Amino acid sequence: MTAEVAPLSGSRCQAPRCMSRAGRADAKAGSSSGAMARGSARRARVPGSGVPGSRVGGRGAQGPRLGPEARVPARAEYRLPGAHPRAPGAWLPSGARTRPARLAGVGVAGEGAESPGPTGSCLVPEAGPSSAVAPARGAGPPDARRPLPAAWQHPFLNVFRHFRVDEWKRSAKQGDVAVVTDKTLKGAVYRIRGSVSAANYIQLPKNSTQSLGLTGRYLYVLFRPLPNKHFVIHLDVSTEDNQVIRVSFSNLFKEFKSTATRLQFPFVLEARTPQRDLVGLVPHGARWTFLQLDLQDILLVYLNRRYGHLKSVRLCASLLVRNLYTSDLCFEPAISGAPWAKLPVTPMPREMAFPVPKGESWHDRYVHVRFPSDSLKVPSKPMEKSGSPPEAVLLGPGPHPLPCPVASSKPVRFSVSPVVQTPSPTAQSSQAPLAPRPFPEVSLSQERSEASNADGPRFHSLEPWARVKASDVHTAAAGTHVLTHESTEVPVAFEDAGSCKRFLPDPILRLKGVIGFGGHSTRQALWTPDGTAVVYPCHAVIVVLLVDTGEQRFFLGHTDKVSALALDGSGSLLASAQARTPSVIRLWDFQTGRCLCVFQSPVHVVCSLSFSDSGALLCGVGKDRHGRTMVVAWGTGQVGLGGEVVVLAKAHTDFDVQAFRVTFFDETRMASCGQGSVRLWRLRGRALRSCPVDLGEHHVLQFTDLAFKQARDGCPEPSAAMLFVCSRSGHILEIDCQCMVVRHARRLLPTQTLGGPHPQKQTFSTGPGIAISSLSLSPAMCAVGSADGYLRLWPLDFSSVLLEAEHEGPVSSVCVSPDGLRVLSATSSGHLGFLDTPSRVYHMLARSHTAPVLALATEQRRGQLATVSQDRTVRIWDLATLQQLYDFTSSEEAPCTVTFHPTRPIFFCGFSSGAVRSFSLEAAEVLVEHTCHQGAITGLTATPDGRLLFSSCSRGSLAQYNCADPQWHVLRVAADMVWPDAPASPSTLAVSRDGRLLAFVGPSRHTVTVMGSASLDELLRVDIGTLDLASGRLDSAMAVCFGPAALGHLLVSTSSNRVMVLDAASGRIIRELPGVHPEPCSSLMLSEDARFLLMAAGRAVKVWDYTTQANPGPQVYIGHSEPVQAVTFSPDQQQVLSAGDAIFLWDILATTESDQRFPGPSPACEAGLGTGQLEDAASRASELPRQQVPKPSQASPPRLGICARPPEGGDGTSDTKNSGAPRTTCPASHKAFTPARASRGPHSAKGTSLPPASSEWLRLKAVVGYSGNGRANMVWRPDTGFFAYTCGRLVVVEDLHSGAQQHWPGHPAEISTLALSHSAQVLASASGRSSTTDHCQIRVWDVSGGLCQHLISHHSTTVLALAFSPDDRLLVTLGDHDGRTLALWGTATYDLVSSTRLPEPVHGVAFNPWDAGELACVGQGTVTFWLLQQRGADISLQVHREQVPETVGAGELTSLCYGAPPLLYCGTSSGQVCVWDTRAGRCFLSWEADDGGIGLLLCSSSRLVSGSSTGRLRLWAVGPVSELRCKGSGASSVFMERELVLDGAVVSASFDGSVDMGVVGTRAGTLWFISWAEGTSTRLISGHRSKVNEVVFGPGESHCATCGEDGSVRVWALASMELVIQFQVLNQSCLCLAWSPRCCGRPEQQRLAAGYGDGSLRIFSVSRTAMELKMHPHPVALTTVTFSTDGQTVLSGDKDGLVAVSHSRTGMTFRVLSDHQGAAISTICVTRKECEDLGVEGTDLWLAASGDQRVSVWASDWLRNRCELVDWLSFPMPATTETQGHLPPSLAAFCPWDGALLMYVGPGFNKEVIIYDLSQKQVVEKIPLPFFAMSLSLSPGTRLLALGFAECMLRLVDCATGTAQDFAGHNNAVHLCRFTPSARLLFTAACNEILVWEVSGR
User: Fold this and answer.
1) Helices (H), 352-501
2) CB neighbour class for 1348 (10 Å; exposed up to 12, middle 13-18, buried from 19)
3) For the residues 478-498, what does the mean pLDDT come to?
4) Is residue 467 very low, low, confident or very high in pLDDT (cuts 50, 70, 90)?
5) Nearest-CA neighbor of 1239 among 1173, 1318, 1323, 1308?
């Protein structure tokens, strides 16, 4: 059916038939099923042209979008520059301490005294957002939560003195402000009084354009309110993202109010007053008040924002104010002076203290108000030392009066408000600010919205207007923000007694993508003013979709479906309304995503919103509570400036309004249309008035939409404004708004098809017209969407159809882009797309289920998602692009459940009829159908190996299928097994991770049954109804879920809102999660590493930290407007999927802790964290200390655990090739040195050529990486600046000013440890044993000259530790647990003085710093003390051994360090730290310091640093431990001051003398700078953690990129080798990499192609730092990838020998070459074809080499799809050619200086390089080699050939002269070497080491 246009005269002109429906790709399921699989493509045609558009929405229709792997910007590597300001002469890293811009005249002040600068301004201007650039050397740590506090603000800042308030130059006063003398304080104060508070004030700073820039967490206001008056205090606080929040306190305020930019707190002056009388005038006798405001917590609690700095302060009448102070310290006002110095609180500085007459109490004279109130207590008297530390006492869940400060008049010891305080370890140090704790969010009144944060999914709260009774209000645990209301609508704040902990990061989920469109209506879809993005609602979420890239961003905060959207003309302000009554409207900053304002509309349901072009006026239309239509006009001009939304006018009308628009030419005029009416509106004054348009005969039409005509110049006169209105009968009226008459009326009528029956005669006013639902205008055309599913484009005279596109459902909305080139269309069937008019192609943007989603399933290999919905469809989605691939529809029955086959491209679906069908994803058809069930399918699941499938139905039967059989026959059907009334849910049936067990709820709702999956024998039946005896009722099970097989846990959610964790073997209760949600949990899932438990909780998603036994509260995430039906983890476990009204894809921000341990008694094993995984996305390196300090005790039981996953490796298996002799398992020493394989010396073979030092062709320039498998292999001296670490066989000495490196070679094997003498003049290094030596080598270096002075050896096994005596006269060396040798050397000649064989393995040795004649060793349960006795030249050792007391419970001692004499601290493998009295030889104290083994301890006099295998670095205050040695047992004074979590086990550390700052190395190969004062960790040195697979270079040679087994792609600045960008794909190995050539586009379009182990290929944009494309051209791992010379084509090879050719822009693979099938492709090389005598055509010449010694050469022209074989080379290979366990690869490359030559190396009869001439078809030269080559690279500029060998050697060959030079330096096989394009540098890689060589000028 096509359209006709009926002119006003009644004549008919027919538009040509121009649109033919695209055929459906239907796959019938058979008569019994009724299911149909259909494609989703539609075509757009140009009328009369016959040229179809491209298919949309089907498989391969569009290029893939951004995949599930989020790019991770890298941290820059930071170097150490100059002197630390606190320690003269000390050296610290720039970037470790970000210094603020120096203020004029402001220096570092002393205790409480600021140094006022000159009269010039010291104010800090507000910083605007800056563009994201790579951090340069010296920049601050990119993961800093907020700017580090400036030094001049420590320890506190006197604000009035610093800004010289008395001079009024940088501050302002207004009204009655005077200086008076106060008798109580006996000093001058400022008096501010006046009847109007806003006219009498003191303001800091003077101008609003300036900022105070005060970063202190606490603001202290010392003031006294004047009696019988009101006062106001305004604070402007800036958040981290530069959003200014106005925080106000006043006794004027009657209630707490909140918007996104304002907080108002009523100030209550008497806590005992009844609540209704809390606010009002200041009573007589008001006292001086010490107001302490925690600005960080105020923003965190009430707005979920992070505090940046204090911008301004205004103190308004009427009050007296003494001063303002800021600080990061929490002062106790009643404590001041020396008598309180030993209290674990921070006393008040004398300058801030109020005077207290002798004999009187502070609380009798003054008032202390702390806001927000803490939940901790302080003791009422000075603490006495006891055996255990004070417990943190938490307030119970009782309601507090109001979210407001409360001042009490009743004197209370240490506190006057209902706030109690507890001693905190951080309060003892002036350098450690208090850590924030989790808070429950405070509810708001019915008239105000919740405190919102639309800045991404960090806002995670429950819906804000839930009216519940007081008894129904429930509290949430830490990390959850709960908004509740009592029936009286009084705001109430609650805290839960168990809410003392939370797990970080918070939030742990971030919304990445949404599948869905519409919800309340599909009419809301808008273009942004620039035409680059589309804004549309998806139920309760507003989505902004970039049409070119497919990226989404979100506006979160609505708790119900969004009913209307509007965007202003500049694209800066977005308005949205939600459908729930009463309707709430939100205004958003469209650019930043922040919610500016939330207000309640007088309209109960808003159905339409419209902005004026400037955004100053917003109009809304809807129904009031009586059902009458109401129009409201709001003034929004001040919202962006922090103002309020005001109602300008309201009007009721009896006429129907379907559409409402504000005119673009006059903001006071509007138009509306509806049933039988078109009205013009005008806003004049405070009134909205309307008048009707005379419609004549059209007054009975039902109008649906309207649009104003725009002139081509965009600036029409109002008098010429024309209004177009459309109707359901097909009429389009053109109305003159000035004359209010209809100028033209047209009607779209259906046209009878040719050959059909003759219709009855139709007139203009009769007959069935085409119902028009929407229209939109551009200056040149009109877009019309109609109920027949067509989008039609017409000229404005409607003479003929310009373009039309057919949709699958009625078109509900159309919108023309601002440039008029694209037309957005939406359908009632949930489709959203746009028609590109220049190309005449329709692009699908989003598809959606039209009813709630019931279940989902994920597939790993293809990255696909399957969903079933109440709309009777099964849909398959691509997880990477979120685009629909297939949909299967059944009109007769509804799908209920779905699951994928684990290994085959098949999915199974259960239907309401009881049928279970399997569908082929390749053929899009039904394969097999079974109907053994009589009821609707409720559960469907398969075993992990894909051999068995299980299904259950609503009548209780359970079926087992054999999936190994192609027909998957039914094996068993058991009746009455499953609970019959169980709802269909993904958690109805559960199969264990090993596939051995099957669990389900049944046969009754009160029991859970566990069966053997293969035999269906009942193994266990648990009666859930008997588990909760205290409830008084039988409990029923709702859902089941298995944990990892290693745990053996079975999780059951119950109807009593609990989750029971059962032992799957015995059925016993292991733990319980109570009160998980008010409603039963229908779906739950545990991650594979058992870290996170996921729950569907009503309309929210809850995430629990499953590993924490203390049951911390969950994090709750909103966004769904209907109950969540299913939740699951993505196949890679890095994302979460939730389905309900729509499908949400969440990124998991937590780094994957590979050393996470399951609770259970298993031997501990070490596995570190993958380097750069998500690259500190959760800022774990700067985590805040724990809230509750671990309790030291006399005896703590050891903790054992097992690793959550295998050790690091590309495929999860251990590499046995790189290990030497079998190692004895030593779980205690988590950082025991693991030497690389013993390689043959690089010069032990004939034919090697070592060049003279003066004529070397290569010079080692830089080393990238740090050996994380060493032990104490890094040294740093802050006083001299000497910094050295090891990388393989090299000692790297780095200049911390410039980053320049010195390299000290010489070791024949990997270096295991370092030691620096106390004079810092000598460095000792030790390495493992090599194949050429019988003993390990120890080298002694002169630090000043960098020369090796001595070479000594004695140990036959690896040297584990080195240590110099305090006087540097002796050196002790310790062998590993195989050698067990302790040797003592004299440093005068470095002769062996003494050596002894130890009876047991020893893990550490240390000299007593206070006695050079004593040293200690720790090992298996013993501490050995050695006393050195010297008689002449002889030294003898006396041994004294002490056993570790059984009460300590430690298995092995793993580390030690001496403290204040006579203390010795020892760490254990179970995480204990025990303290020894070396004089008495006894252990008198121990405490549990960590969950993992303590591998490192460092101590100063009063501070101890511990590092563990879990990556935790902790700072302990151990000053009082010496006193405990004499006073007996007890550990109350051992406190943890700080905690940092690094990226792997701690293996080395060096700190300054005060342990304030230091450098720490981890097993992940990273060196961190640690600043305890700032609580930060800054990355100094890092490299790939595992093998580096490729190095490529950018066209401009400014950057290079590397990829590795750790799944990362890293981009480095070539000049400085600083890490610039990192792209991370978790749980995958990146095996190959290519950089797009220069000719493919502009420099900003540079791209990287990376191939992965799962067969995927990803394209990354370097300029945009984002993934552009993800394709899957191979079924197995890729081995090589490269671009064509024009950069438009990607060639990739895999390990099966296939070569795929794909488009780099679309991702389409258009050619696959299988000539090499059966042998892995080792290399693909592409060059521009320059040799014309090859006899073939093409622009590119490329070759592929495979592991079977075959090389194929091809000529291609990919633009013409031509590819022709040029030559085929086969090289013979003997039977065995392995070299040291490696099979030499077959490598080939074109010669850059002669295009006709090809060079080949590989296994063969001879070790040689073969040079082949393509023109002559013969070998022209052979170059002999000493070994088989492992890598090959040819210099583009010079005739140099670089080859790497497995013998750790690199050879450089001059092909012009035939000479060669060999170079050593690597510790492993040199498997990679690459010249830079300019041939100035050569990169070589061995395992994870990267060496950068400088090529001398030749």
Assistant:
1) 362-365
2) middle
3) 31
4) very low
5) 1308
Preceding amide of 1222 cis, omega within 30: no
The one-character DSSP state at 1523 is: H
Bridge partners of residue 889, in order along the sequence: 36, 873
3-state secondary structure of 1219: coil
Query: Which residues, including other chains, have CB under 8 Å from residue 588's CB and lie 6 or more apart?
Result: 454, 542, 555, 573, 574, 575, 576, 594, 595, 596
Q: What is the pLDDT of residues 219-228, one digit of tens each?
A: 999 999 998 8
Confidence of residue 1249 (pLDDT cuts 50, 70, 90): low
Query: Other C-beta atoms within 10 Å of 763: how many?
Result: 11
Mean predicted lDDT score pLDDT of the chain: 76
DSSP-based three-state secondary structure for 89: coil
Structure tokens at 1649: 């192609």
What are the residues facing 662 on neighbouring strands? 670
Helix (H) or strand (E) holding 301: helix 295-302
Q: 1394-1427 burial string, b = 16+ CB within 10 Å, else e?
A: beeebeebbbbbbbbeebbbbbbbbbbbbbbbbe
| Averaged pLDDT for residues 1326-1352 | 87
Res 452: pLDDT:
36
Sheet containing strand 1453-1458, edge to edge, reads 1453-1458, 1463-1468, 1472-1477, 1482-1488
Of all helices (H) and strands (E), which one includes residue 1626?
Answer: none
pLDDT digits (tens, 9 = 90+) for 254-266: 888 888 888 998 9
pLDDT at 1238: 42
Q: Is the distance from CB of 514 to CB of 832 less than 8 angstroms?
A: no
Pairwise CA distance, residues 731 & 798, whole Å: 12
Separation in Å, CA 1428 to CA 1371, 1479, 1601: 13, 15, 54
φ, ψ dihedrals at 1845, nearest 5°: -120, 160
Q: Are 1098 and 1084 in contact (CB under 8 A)?
A: no
Residue 525 phi/psi, 5° resolution?
-150, 125
Strand, helix or coil at 720?
Answer: helix
Q: Say whether pTM exceeds 0.90.
A: no
Digit-coded pLDDT (tens) for 1449-1483:
656 899 999 998 889 999 998 889 999 998 888 88
Could you tell me if 229 and 191 are in contact, meaning their C-beta atoms sit under 8 angstroms apart? no
Residue positions counted in the chain: 1898
Distance CA 1149, CA 1626 (A): 12
Cα distance from N-terminal residue to C-terminal residue, the chain? 77
Pairing state between β 262-266 and 1434-1443: unpaired
Whether 1095 and 1088 have beta carbons less than 8 Å apart is answered as: no
Beta strands 526-527 and 997-1001, pairing class:
unpaired
1149: pLDDT strictly greater than 70: yes
Closest by CA to 707, choosing from 770, 651, 664, is 664
pLDDT beyond 90 at 71: no
Number of helices and strands in the chain (H, E):
4, 138
Q: Is 1649 helix (H, G, I), strand (E, B) or coil?
A: strand
Q: What is the pLDDT of residues 1656-1694, one digit of tens each?
A: 999 999 888 888 889 999 999 999 999 998 888 999 999
CA gap 1326, 1340 in Å, rounded: 9
Residue among 725, 722, 735, 729 nearest 705 (CA): 725
The C-alpha atoms of residue 1866 and residue 1864 are separated, in whole angstroms, by: 6
Least confident range from 430-434, 672-676, 1375-1379: namely: 430-434
Is there a contact between 1187 and 1562 (Cβ–Cβ < 8 Å)?
A: no
DSSP state of 220: E
995-1045 pLDDT tens trace: 899 999 888 888 899 999 988 888 888 888 764 554 556 778 888 999 888
| Torsion angle of C-alpha atoms 1353, 1356, 1358, 1363, degrees rounded to 10 | -40
pLDDT reported for residue 1604: 92
